[in-house]
Write a structure and sequence with these properties.
Elements (H helix, E strand, L loop, with lengths): L2 E8 L3 H6 L13 E5 L19 E5 L9 E5 L4 E3 L12 E6 L2 E7 L7 H23 L3 E7 L23 H12 L2 E3 H6 L8 E2 L11 E2 L2 E6 L6 E6 L11 E6 L1
Parallel strand pairs: 1-2, 7-8
Antiparallel strand pairs: 1-14, 2-4, 3-4, 5-6, 6-7, 8-12, 9-12, 10-11, 13-14
Length: about 260
């Protein structure tokens, strides 16, 4: 078996990140799958030279709402892109689905529910549609890798101020219960699998009040894998030294 390195990063605007040269580290990082979320751009708006590496395959899923959401996948691993329009029913550019070998890989920007109650309802419906989709693929014999900005911190250990956010979307009981269900149905939070209950490891910090400098953050970016891949997990980490966005990248290394 060889190993594959996966990186997931909510860049909060790929053009903004490019102006900071914040993706140049990819050239030295030996990344086999790069999944970016919230690119806020269509394919022809992505600057040339965001990194020098020339990936053989790329898939850009832009939102129908220009300047919002959007995901991008870059890889050299030959496979086939698939469509998740029955999950992303508002065409907000939230999913890359890519099948290689017996694995279905997903790069997902899950909805944020903080804007209003209507968006929270949509977020929960999106969660359920997505879960149904990956469970169907499991029944077909596919192994599953899911990465992205889930927009929910699972446990109190996953955010700096759990008490203050008990009634905030992103840490509501019903949002966290969906993550409970995901794990109960045979999926693994790879970071916790590797690191256990390590504290104060976050992937998102508000731009306000020096939150990142003070590490007042949330762990809302994840790699989940189906449990048949558990013994293939080599490494899972949060790359909180990488700057350029209000999120930092998360990493998975897997034997394939």
């Amino acid at each position: 078996m060889s190993t594959l390195t996966f990186i997931s990063w909510n860049v909060n605007g790929i053009r903004a990140v490019d102006k900071k040269d914040a993706l140049k580290w990819i050239d030295e990082a030996n990344v086999d799958f790069l999944g970016l979320q919230e690119i806020k751009a269509e394919a022809d708006q992505i600057p040339e030279g965001i990194f020098e590496r020339n990936y053989k395959f790329q898939s850009i899923n832009a939102s129908s709402n220009k300047g919002q959401s959007g995901v991008a996948l870059y890889t050299d691993i030959k496979g086939e892109a698939s469509c998740c329009s029955h999950v992303d029913i508002l065409d907000e550019g939230r999913i890359n689905e890519y099948h290689f070998g017996d694995i279905a890989y997903f790069n997902v920007y899950f909805p944020n529910g903080q804007r209003n109650d209507e968006r929270l309802v949509y977020k929960m419906e999106f969660y359920e549609r997505f879960l149904e989709h990956i469970l169907d693929l499991r029944k077909q014999g596919k192994s599953i890798i899911v990465c992205g900005d889930v927009n929910t911190a699972h446990h109190p250990i996953d955010l700096a101020r759990p008490k203050a956010n008990e009634k905030t979307s992103g840490f509501l009981p019903m949002e966290r219960e969906w993550q409970d269900k995901l794990l109960a149905l045979g999926f693994i939070d790879t970071f916790r699998h590797v690191h256990g209950n390590i504290e104060e490891r976050y992937s998102w910090w508000s731009y306000r009040a020096g939150a990142r400098g003070n590490n007042v953050g949330w762990r809302i970016d994840y790699f989940y894998v189906s449990d048949d891949l558990k013994d293939r997990i080599v490494e899972a980490d949060i790359l909180d030294h990488v700057m350029g966005s209000d999120h930092c990248p998360v990493k998975l290394v897997l034997k394939v």
